[in-house]
Amino acid sequence: MSEDARLPLSPIPEDALLIRRDGAVLELLINRPEQRNALSLALLSGIGAALDAHAGDESLRCAMITAAGDRCFAAGGDLKELDAVRSIPQARAMSRHGRSALDRVRSFPVPVIAALNGHALGGGAELAMACDFRLMVPQARIGFLQASLAVTTAWGGGIDLVHALGSARALELLLGARQVEAQEALRIGLVHAVARPGQSLAEAVSEFISPLLPRPRQVAVAATALAREARRQLHARLAEAEEHEFVATWTHPDHWAAVDRAAAARKRPA
Q1: For a tag on the chain, would you pick the N or C end, based on fewer CB atoms within 10 A?
Q2: How many CA atoms are closer than 13 Å to the CA of 76, on its beta-carbon side?
Q3: Mean pLDDT on 179-185
Q4: Do 50 and 14 touch, CB atoms closer than 8 A?
Q5: What is the pLDDT of residues 56-109, one digit of tens each?
Q6: Are the C-beta atoms of residues 144 and 124 closer than 8 Å to each other?
Q7: Where are the domains of the chain?
Q8: 3-196+217-263 — its CATH code?
Q9: Could you write out the DSSP letters of every residue in 213-238?
Q10: What is the pTM of this model?
Q11: How far, in Å, CA of 233 to CA of 52, rounded?
């Protein structure tokens, strides 16, 4: 890798990603609530590596990715880290790094569930869409906010959105850059279940996966493989185009002007 393409990988604390087993379920918990569970590049690598390490576990029937706190599932990429990604080679390397991590989510042999304890925004929405199923609490929102910063999706999330909703609906969400409320997300098929009033997210997940757990491992793998292949073929056709457009928009002056405006807005007193 050239010096110009070297990525600013910030180390993360060991407890930023917690991994545990609950019977036949592998649970990954993003544990950076003070940073709104921002997705650093190292954290993305950790998610991918954790799934790789358990892909051959014959006792698993599904995996779940969730996060600590009740505010955010993941509020996008780590802004301090990404601010250093300025050149075309760096932008391309960052896109490929994140896509590689999320491809491990997409290729996990049994279903992966995103349990959205809070908002999934920007890169957080891309992580959620990489999973097979999405469940959320009623107060959570999911939004592809990239266009508000004059940029496009980097890690395959736009392709996943097209696969899930069709090109027209996906385009509306990508260009609109709005945060979709839970009930609308359920209605349009962006998520698969919303916790009922008084029902915890853990209870909603348990209810949702209860029909999946009794299936033999080979049935879970075979059914998942069919869905995986349909999505893989779409990614094979569109990944190069998504990367090209991301790099072009990320390195455009309009993106950095939008970033500066957003940073200034955050500093203003409420």
Answers
A1: C
A2: 20
A3: 98
A4: no
A5: 999 999 999 999 999 999 998 887 888 889 999 999 999 999 999 999 999 999
A6: no
A7: 3-196+217-263
A8: 3.90.226.10
A9: TTS-HHHHHHHHHHHHHHHHHHHHHH
A10: 0.95
A11: 21
